[in-house]
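Bug #77: duplicate submission created two jobs. Keeping one. Sequence:
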Amino acid sequence: MKQKKLPKFLFVHLETENIGIEYLSAALKKNNVPIDLLFLPRIYNNIAFHFGGGDESKNEKFLIIAKIKQYKPDIVCFSPFTSQYLWTITQATMIKKKFPEIFVLFGGVHVNSVPDEVMKQKCVDGLILGEADTQIVEFAKNFYDLDKLKSVESLWIREGKKIVKNKLAKLVANLDILPFPDKDIFYDQIPKQLLDTSYVIMASRGCPFACTYCANNVYQKLYIGQRRLRFRTPENVVAELVEAKKKYHYKMVEFFDDVLTIDEKRLEILLKLYRKKVGVPFTCYMHPQLVNENIIKLLKKSGCSWLKMGVQSANEQYRRMHLKRGESNKEIVAASDLCHKYNLTFSLDHIFNLPGETEENLIEAVELYTRCKPTAINYGTLIYLPGTEIIDLGIKQKLLTKNDVKLINLGKDPVVHMSNFELFSHQDDSIKNLNLSVYAMLLSLIPIAPASLIRFLINRKIYKWKRPVPQSFLVVLKVLDKMYAKQMFVYASVFRTLYYYYIKDKWSVNKI
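Kept job's structure:
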């Protein structure tokens, strides 16, 4: 029997490893579909840092063209976050102009938020909505049969001036049937010296919550009526980690699950296997309503070196009404106290520039975090993600206009392109009576300074200062926070990455 012709896929991706692309690659390779990746790390111009190293766009365009000429793909795929969307549209436009015969396929978080807007871009031939592990394989198998292709679930495809919008496929219920993510597709392009740090894994998919500012808010609406939260069995998770440990020799595991501690019995089984067969430090996310003393004790015993917990606003009423977060401050404090009891390092997340934010709300935040005394506080300004409910609140508070929403949907909101360091002192123009840089300074001081000093500064109404705190000083405080938390390896990793990419093992067209 003559083997069915299969198209060649090329993924183009910026900045960091993408576990979604790794799963898609694994699914395609399992079905003998040719696939390759052009990874463009953007070491000095990414979401975390903007160094003055020059413009990478010309070199990136050259690399993309060279890769296409060398590999000759039938399909070029992009899976952008909102911060990457403008760049991907620019590159897709360039590809369609130079290689009109190539099919340009989009997917990912931004696409799921505003698919109609994405399909307005003439450079986009099609997109796949939602989780695409099985659908991208169906797309590949039917690529050369237009009639069948037009019926592939979750696929939107351009047909002349018409756009065919197929119904959304059902989510994969049993995650164990999926192949392990294809890490090699990224790891083969990363200097070997940078592969011994951490291994990113997801032991589940979906989130039980739908916070109004989060992408899960979009997925809840996309998959309404379906069970979004699904778990891999502990045995399946540990099998991936064991296999990867032999191959990559990682020193830490990062669980990227939205909340790892949802099912206590499952967690006990998972961590028992983890201690026995993996045995390296790990980090994970938790929710203050889904934690108790046994869970904290279990995490500490099993090697958890960093526990991350979102708070975002210290005002309970605001969290419930506007963020869809139902936890109480009492629960946040209780979770923090348990971390202290078992000497488990933990961080709290806070968002500045929330619509309707007041001076009282921010003072509450300083007081709550001072009481909790986390190892670190991660803060930044609100980024309006397309399709999320918090945009409606921004419009209601007259902080956003309809034109602003259009810009957000197009990935043109200026905040989304700011680095983490720039966000330290960013303030929305509409909130002129709040010096957010002072609150950022206080949140940086809380982990490293005595509570009495923080209360003294609040009593002296330091937040009434009009002059912004210098961004350089906030950066120094952040570095001190990392030193106190014994996390200087985060910055060390940045400089190691710069060294191996741009000095010792320079990234260039010769890597293709």
